Amino acid sequence: MRRLNRKKTLNLMKELDAFPKVPESYVETSASGGTVSLIAFTTIAFLTIMEFTVYRDTWMKYEYEVDKDFTSKLRINIDITVAMRCQYVGADVLDLAETMVASADGLIYEPVVFDLSPQQKEWQRMLQVIQSRLQEEHSLQDVIFKSAFKSASTAQPPREDNSLQSPDACRIHGHLYVNKVAGNFHITVGKAIPHPRGHAHLAALVSHESYNFSHRIDHLSFGELIPGIINPLDGTEKIASDHNQMFQYFITVVPTKLHTYKISAETHQFSVTERERVINHAAGSHGVSGIFMKYDISSLMVTVTEEHMPFWQFLVRLCGIIGGIFSTTGILHGFGRFVAEIIFCRFRLGSYKSTSVPLPDGHTSNHLPLITDNSTH
């Protein structure tokens, strides 16, 4: 009884077989079929490798929303070298709420030589090349995001030549915490002092001949400091053509949440436009000599997430490639054989030319002669 049930089950399963087998004795192989099969297998192998490369790759997904965090502090990371002695310059921040943040809260004034060593010049040149490529190819920013914490530090390397030249510049570096509102970070002549109507700088004791606001921005960023991220002003160098010259940078800061497979951080991207002019009150060009960075905070927040193709999607695409190539090559091969047979049949029919056979009554017949058994002997 059990054997009978098993037999019925097997017969039922055979009837449900969607892949019937054809005996090998009924299968006809050909050279053209073998050639098409070889091309199909080669194409499948190539596309499988390419698909696996796509599967291993990742991409960055950008999402936008309104930034609802206005109570937290904004961190400004600064590393700027000015071609003036440290006792002659002062740096601070004044925001729209008229809150002054003095440089003593987190900035360090370090006397240095303004001219770079050969190794530092090479570092700056490479940084400027990367900046120019980033302006042309915006997709490289995704590569920088994915390489954060993996690539080498973008900080300027220390001097290797131990120059005996006396310091003629001041390196201002460190970080400041400011309110999350628009503000103005500036470096100008004299140290900053509090003032009932804002703030002021003690510039009266500094000679105009010593003004030189040639500067180099080795690093400027907002938010959490992430090694490997290159910001728009990194590597910028400006040489003043006059003692009384103003350099202005207008910055729009965009809060950014970065989520990759390596890091998860809250930082800020920014865009910048710049302007410089000589202060000449007689010509109507008013202002104060110095370096002014006016920043504004965007109300939008960007979330950048690194994504990867799911494994099931990779399998579906792989099955589509294999099945599609087999089906397509089979159709093309069948169509090619059909066309070839039509052409060869016409060629064979055209090779048989009609012949004229004389009849006894003097007429001729254009039909082919009938082949009989007697004619074959």
UniProtKB/TrEMBL annotation:
Predominant localisation class: endoplasmic reticulum
InterPro entries, alphabetized: Erv, Erv_C, Erv_N
Top-level taxon of the source organism: Eukaryota
Stretches assigned to the Endoplasmic reticulum vesicle transporter C-terminal domain: 164-331
Keywords: Endoplasmic reticulum, ER-Golgi transport, Golgi apparatus, Membrane, Transmembrane, Transmembrane helix, Transport
Lipid bilayer topology: Multi-pass membrane protein
GO biological process: endoplasmic reticulum to Golgi vesicle-mediated transport; retrograde vesicle-mediated transport, Golgi to endoplasmic reticulum
Segments crossing the lipid bilayer: none
Annotated ranges, domain Endoplasmic reticulum vesicle transporter N-terminal: 13-98
The keyword Endoplasmic reticulum appears for this protein: yes
Compartment(s): Endoplasmic reticulum membrane; Endoplasmic reticulum-Golgi intermediate compartment membrane; Golgi apparatus membrane
Record's GO cellular component terms: COPII-coated ER to Golgi transport vesicle; endoplasmic reticulum membrane; endoplasmic reticulum-Golgi intermediate compartment membrane; Golgi membrane
Reported function: Plays a role in transport between endoplasmic reticulum and Golgi.
Family (UniProt): Belongs to the ERGIC family.
The protein, known as: Endoplasmic reticulum-Golgi intermediate compartment protein
Native organism: Cuculus canorus
